[in-house]
Every structure is written in C-alpha cells, then in structure tokens.
Amino acid sequence: MNTSIVTTDRISSHVGPASRRAASTGRNEEKDRQLSALMREAQDGNQAAYASLLREVLPILKRVVQARLSFIPATDREDLVQDILLSLHAARATYDPARPFTPWLMTIAHNRMVDQARRNARRAANEVTVDEYPTHVADEDTAADGYGDPEELRQAIKTLPRGQRSAIELLKLREMSLKEAARATGMSISALKVSVHRAVKSLRTALQG
User: Fold this and answer.
1) How big is the chain by its Cα radius of gyration, in Å?
2) Which of 17, 68, 85, 203 has a CA that sits 20 to 30 A from residue 114's CA?
3) Whether the predicted pLDDT of 156 surpasses 80
4) SS3 readout for 54-94
5) Residues 201, 202, 206, CA angle at the centre, nearest 5°?
6) What's the pLDDT tens digit per position in 54-112?
7) How far is residue 163's CA from residue 132's CA, in Å, rounded to a whole number?
C-alpha cells in the first residue's frame, strides 16, 4: 500500500509540471481564439463584440505595461494603456483574422512602450524634445479603465473643441508626428502638445463608466 502511494506520488511529481505547462498553453490558445473571434466580428461592424474585445484586452495590457515599464510613474502607465487602445482602434482594419490575435496586439503594445520608454529616457536626461508634454499641464488624475464602445469614442471625439479634435485625430489615430501635424493644422507644436493632452484627459472623463 505504501509502495503504491510512493510510486503514484513520484509519477505525479514527474508529469505534473509538463501537464501544467500544457494546460497553460491550451488556455492561452483558447483565449487567443476568443479574442480573434471578437476582432473578426468587430471588423464586420459588431460594436458589441468590439466593446467586449476592449474589455478583454484591457487587463492584459495593464499587466504587460506594469511588468515591462514598472519604473515609470503610474499615471504614465495608465496613459500608455490608453494610447495602446487608441492605436488598436486606429489599426483594427489591418488585423488578419487568419493570424493569431495576441502577437498582433503585442506588436502594437511594444511599439507604444518603446516610444514611452524613449520619452522617459530623454526626460531623465533633461533633454527637451517635441514629444513631451509641458510640465505645467501634467495630469495627476487617475486614468479611466478604457474607451468602451467604439461609437461612443467617435461621438466623444466629435464633441471635443476643434483644436483638441484635430490633435487627437492626427497624433493618436493617424499617428502623425508633431511636426507633420503642425504642418497639417497650422498649430504650433506647443499648442498641439497641450491640445492632445487635454483631449486624452477629456476622453477618459467622458467615456469612464
């Protein structure tokens, strides 16, 4: 009886980690299929599916940003998550449903995190760059959890003042550089920086729920 128990324990101990890894891989693959299906439906115009997708990816993005950029201020991490969601919104038509969703999302997140890390590195070196917000408009408020329904996002953008609307559309959705956006709008770079910062703050407030 004791020999049987010991033998069983040894077998369980031997195969346990492999089984757990297999189970984890299976869960990850199932999650990816779920997200991919939601994105396909969103691309077909299903707004409920898109809202569900945003709710699903939000905690994933928060964990990734926290793990990789824990050294930056919490408010910067929250703003970065919002930037990633905006980039996802702008690039959603480029997703190929035949490919896994998570690597596509992580590519977007990686690019935004690299941009943020570079900005923080320059800030730490006391360099003045056009990518940074003026310190006098720093936002200390807690960021909203997400942008929610895409139609609500579109409507919220429409309600922004003209300068803020132009700034958010060019810099966040179309991902222009500040110099390109300045040429397109005739606004100064400083004005654009302030406008996009205020626009993001207004959108978080309007869409928080």
Assistant:
1) 21
2) 203
3) no
4) HHHHHHHHHHHHHHHCCCCCHHHHHHHHHHHHHHHHHHHHH
5) 120
6) 999 999 999 999 998 887 778 888 888 888 988 898 888 899 999 999 999 999 999 88
7) 18
